Amino acid sequence: MTPERSQALTNLLTEAGFAGARIVPLAADASFRSYDRVFAPDGRRAVLMNAPPGREDVRPFRRVAGVLAEWRLSPPQVLAADAKQGFLLLEDLGDDLFGRVIGRDPAMEEALYAAAVDVLVSLAGHAAPPDLPRHDLTALLDEVALFLDWRLPEVRGRAASDAERRSFRDAWAEALICPSDSQNTLVLRDYHVDNLIWLPDRDGPRRVGLLDFQDAVGGHPAYDLASLLADVRRDVPAALEDEMIRRYLAATGAAEAPFRAAYAALGAQRNTRILGVFTRLWRRDGKARYLDWLPRAWRLLRRDLGHPALQPVAAWFERHMPDDPAARGETPE
Question: Where are the alpha helices (DSSP H) in 24-145?
Answer without folding.
Answer: 59-70, 98-104, 109-124, 137-144
